[in-house]
Design brief:
With 148 residues, the chain is mainly alpha-helical. It has 7 helices and 3 strands; from the N terminus they run αααβαββααα. The protein has a single domain, classed as Zincin-like (2-Layer Sandwich). It is globular, with a radius of gyration of 16 Å.
């Protein structure tokens, strides 16, 4: 059992935060992959191949395209072809779908809410994928609940 697993199992008052460090880009990518792997198998199968990328913040081009004023207002982004737009035959040279997780906005959200970091990452993944695959909010809530 690693240090992070032990910390999770301890009640909050028993945790020592003295040596805790913020998760790195690699940590968040690993957490994203673990969260995706914990989603229901039928959902993952429908999604197909997907990459998870992590950046400190969304780029200026993303903020401009989405009309977002603050880089802290977007936690993640789906880039790729949603199920409704996918053709039966993959296009030559097309890249796999990609989910971006934005580290600093996610950590900021985590600091302001009473949710686990893993729960937030799962929520971002499901919602970014779900919106592009035409799922309802109720469908996404059911998928998140099944991942718990």
């Amino acid at each position: 059992m690693n240090r992070q697993t032990r910390a999770r199992r301890q009640p909050p008052e028993a945790r020592s935060w003295a040596d805790a460090e913020a998760p790195t880009l690699d940590d968040l990518e690993r957490l994203g992959r673990e969260a995706f792997d914990a989603l229901p198998e039928d959902f993952r199968r429908r999604v197909g191949e997907i990459r998870i990328g992590v950046a400190e913040f969304p780029g200026d081009d993303v903020l401009a395209d989405l009309g977002v004023e603050s880089e802290f207002d977007i936690l993640g982004l789906f880039q790729g072809v949603g199920l409704a737009h996918a053709s039966a035959v993959p296009e030559t040279g097309s890249l796999p779908n990609l989910i971006w997780l934005y580290r600093r906005p996610i950590l900021d959200y985590w600091a302001e809410h009473e949710e686990t970091l893993g729960g937030i990452v799962t929520h971002v993944l499901v919602h970014e994928i779900g919106h592009h695959f035409g799922l309802s909010d109720e469908d996404m809530e059911a998928i998140e609940a099944a991942a718990d």
